[in-house]
Design goal:
By secondary structure, the protein is of the alpha/beta class. The protein contains 13 helices and 13 strands. About 5% of the residues have low confidence.
Amino acid sequence: MRIAILGSVATQIPPIGQAAIETLVNYQALGLAAKNHQILLFAPVGSSVSHPNIQLVPVGRGGTLSGQGKESEEGELEIGSSYKLRLEIAHLSILLQKLIDLKDEYDVILNNLRGEAVIFPVAKLLNKKVFHVMHMPLFDEIASVIKKYQTSLIAISIAQRKAYPDLNYAATVYNGVDPDLFSFNPKHLDYFLYLGSITPNKNPAAAVRVCRSLGVSLKIGGRIKDEKYYKKEIEPFVDGTQIQWIGEITQEEIIKMYQGAKAFLFPTLWEEPFGLVLIEAMSCGTPVIAYANGAIPEVVVNGRTGFVIEDNSEEKMMEKMKIIDSINRKNCREHVEKNFTIEKMVEGYNRALAGISQ
C-alpha cells in the first residue's frame, strides 16, 4: 500500500527531546515501511527517518509553533500574538499543496496533524481515504467536521471514544515503545519523577506539593507551555536538592531518569488520551502513580504496575507513594512487553488501514 503519513509541521521527526506525537510518528513510519508499504512522510526540514521505503516530503521548518512552547520569536514581536498560529497555518497550506501535487503517489492518508480539520475536505476532493489518529481529544466542532466527511478514526484508547461514540472508528490502537531502548532497571534511586508538559491540565504542581509534604526528592522536567503557571506553581519551590528542575532533556537523559526513579508521578487533570510517558517509564521498570482520568486505568494496572488514584486526591497519592516499593518492577516491564510494544502498535495500524482500504 502507498501511504501518505502526515507527521508534523512543527517538530522534526524523530524529535530531539520530548515530543510524544512526533516520537510515535517515527515508530509508525518505520514500522509500516518495514511491512513493505511505500511511505510518503510529510515532516519538517531536519527530519531524518531513514528507510528504503520512506520518502521524506519537507514541510515547515521545525521549531515551536502555536501553543507548543514558551519562546517568543522575532516575527511574533513584530506582528503580534497571532504570529505562531498564522505561521502554522502557512505551513499547513504548503503541506496541502504538496498533498495535491503528489496525489498520484499515495493511496491513503494517515493523519497525525493537530490541524486535522483542514485535511478532510481536501482529501475528499482528491478522492483519498483518510485515517485520523486521535492523538488529542476531540471537541464538538472537530467532531462535526469528522462526521460530515465520514473520516475513519483510529483511537489510541477506549476511553477516548466515549465522548463521541457514534463516529466512524476504524480501530483502537494503543501507543507503543521500544523495550530495547527503554531498557529495564531492577533497582531504583531515591527520587520520584515527573516528565511532561508544564501546564495546568497536566498538573505537575501536585507532584511538587506531595513530594514537599512527604519530604522526598522530586526531579521535574519538560517543556514549559505555560510560563505564568511555571513561575507561580513550580519555580518558587525548586531548591536544587529536594525539588530539582531538569528542564527539557535529551532522550538518552530521559531514559536514565526513568530507570533511576522510585516512581513516576502523573497527576493529570484532563481526560488523558493515553500517556506515552507512562509506558516509557514502566518499560524501564518504574511504577506509575497517576490520577484516574481518561485512559489512565487502561494503561496502569492498579496495584500491579503502580497505583491509579481516584478523585484527584493528593492525600491518596501520598499514601501510595509510601508503599511504592510493594510494586515489583518486573511487573511493570512485563506489562509493557505484553501490551505496548512498537510491533503491536504498528500491527494495529496495519490492520486498520488494510481493513478500510479493501
